[in-house]
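#struct-help
A.M.: can someone run this one for me? Single chain, 477 residues.
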Amino acid sequence: MDEADRMPCPPDFVAAGALVALGAIIGARCAIKPKSRDSWLIVPNLWGGIVGLPSAKKSPAIGAALKPLDRLIARAMEAYQADAEAFEADKTVFEAKRDAIESRIKAAAKDVKKGDLDSIARELQSHRHQAPAEPTLRRYKSNDTTVEKLGELLRENPAGLLVLRDELVGLIAAWDKEGREGERAFYLEAWNGNASFDTDRIGRGSIFIPNLCVSIFGGIQPDKLTGYLEQAANALANDGMLQRFQLLVFPDHRAWEWRDRIPAKDARDLAFSVFDALADFDPVAWGAASIDDFAKFPHFRFDEAAQEIFIEWSGDLHRSKMPAEDHPIIAQHLAKFDKLFPALALILHLVECAATGRRGLVTAEAALRAAAWCDYLEAHARRCYGLLVDDGLRAAQALADKLRQGKLVDGFTARDVRRNQWRSLTTDNAVEAALDWLQDEDWLRAEEVGGTGPGTGRRTYRYSINPKTVKPSRDHG
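D.P.: on it. Structure tokens below:
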């Protein structure tokens, strides 16, 4: 709240970024079993984003949310550099000893008096087993990476990584392009956070990723989100890529106000301490059950009261809310809440553990807070999808503006509109919806032409413009 108020920006921006960052730090080091007996596991990696105008301070808000993570990254780099220097020294000693043993082997091969060849060979083999291990840089996030490189990073960091992008739509839209199906499949699997993944590439060889776990966060401008929704509606219906961005927030724009005060140091230090604790915590010591035949991660469970809350919430979601939903895209989004609730409950529980020293099962308090977050995020999801689910109103408004500007003349066709690729009028469906809307409002009149017989061409509609709708009134000049 302090960071958001001093910028100023909506606090939703900072909160969503912080939650996704916390989920990325916890990652696949532990999971939660939402059912008391079943083997169903949820890893708390999350995908999210903030929707706002270019002036909404999205980037500063993301930077504020990730300050604790940036500090962890700096510490990891310092530790890696120290380990790398020690490794180079150990490597030099190791190679010197190896060279000395190999020299003795060569001498013994030439003169048996120089030593027993087999004995020295065994000594060399034993020495090779003592080779110093090259240190690995612990990675927390990446701003720009190919899936091949991301796979290599995940092989070295099986708990997972955060992919951070200033403009999320560019990343998502890239997965829709022909020839990028492999990347789309990679990220779809990475959202689950609990499965292995193999990649085979000519020139790069084969990479086995023991656990594919990725968190994603970034910013989106409303008009770019609208354009993506219009172009990708069919793809969304197939695999629900955008619906996986469950921490997608679209708050009201916050008006600029002058703020100049000292940051709240106590709040900042507490946030830093929570991130520090979760970066190195031992799940089992904090109350998780150990890995077993049915669970590949240490895993937490709900306590009795929290379990009842989740059961009641699940029943309402699947028996009432989803069946009553009229819009398929929103229904698909709500279906992903089966992961969202347990993931949020686990993150919030572990934050409480880090801040207070509490240990044990996920509490009813964490479950109630997760339920409240789900209600809040559902409202924001509806606002985001409302950019698309508006029955052609936005497209009609865009076409009306073009008519007022004289961009079209009597007798125009739907094709004339579409080939201009005006904003909100880039697809056949959007153009048809706009034309239907403006006909109902008496802006346009359609006349069917062609197609009445041989040689008359294809049947089409030409549109006449009501002159009263495009002439400015006297009151407005």
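A.M.: thanks! The radius of gyration is 29 Å.
D.P.: also worth noting: Residues 414 and 432 are 7 Å apart (CA to CA).
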